[in-house]
Amino acid sequence: MGCTAERLALALRAAAAVIAVHRDELVELDRAIGDADHGENMHRGFTAVVAKLVGGGFDTPGAVLKVTATTLISTVGGASGPLYGTAFLRASTALGDTSEVDGPGAAAALRGALDGVVARGKAEVGDKTMVDALAPAVEAAKAAAEAGGDVAAVLAVAAEAGERGAESTVPLVARKGRASYLGERSAGHLDPGARSTALLLRALADEAGA
Ligand code: ADP
Ligand code: MG
Ligand code: MG
């Protein structure tokens, strides 16, 4: 079974709850190599997303992702706001007007999200950013979809790969964003944006694929 607009809206509300639970953790990660606001930024953004989604009435999963995108762009701020906003916008575009997301659709949406982040932020894998979580998630999702995986299977492997990818940022020296100002001193810390991406992927896998 695919993921409907209603199911996706529930999944995003669950993702917002996960961000709320991890707000302080994201603040502390960003305190180590940034300006200690990533948790606040994400929490503000996803609280606004929940407020937009609560009334329902979205015809397609793409419409749900689009309102998520515009809300994040106007509320998150910082580097991550436009990046996540563009990610959700491109994911929305990838889905078009489909009424239920299947395995290949989920993989295509994730691909769109990554392309959006890269187009906007110009980061590559290894630069110690959210791309280090999202890029392996996209690869894993593609493989699972090609193997015939449904939306649950595709999102599950994406979440796993995203978690491993986020962990891979710990030893890296940041080459993009605020953390890059620290140079070598950025090594030894988990990137906050990679962590939030992994959290979002896990929440979506647990709920949108259910
Ligand atoms: P700011 O750095 O403006 O305070 P946030 O703290 O909300 O914004 O977000 C920081 C996160 O944004 C970083 O941990 C990193 O994952 C991500 N980021 C920053 N610059 C880029 C970029 N050019 N490409 C991809 N991700 C980036
Ligand atoms: Mg910050
Ligand atoms: Mg900031």
Automatic annotation (TrEMBL):
SMART domains: Dak2
InterPro entries according to UniProt: DhaK_L_YcgS, DhaL_dom, DhaL_dom_sf, Dihydroxyacetone_Kinase
Source species, domain of life: Bacteria
Domain DhaL: 6-206
GO cellular component: cytosol
GO biological process entries: glycerol catabolic process
Molecular function (Gene Ontology), one example: glycerone kinase activity
Protein name: Dihydroxyacetone kinase subunit L
Protein source organism: Longimycelium tulufanense
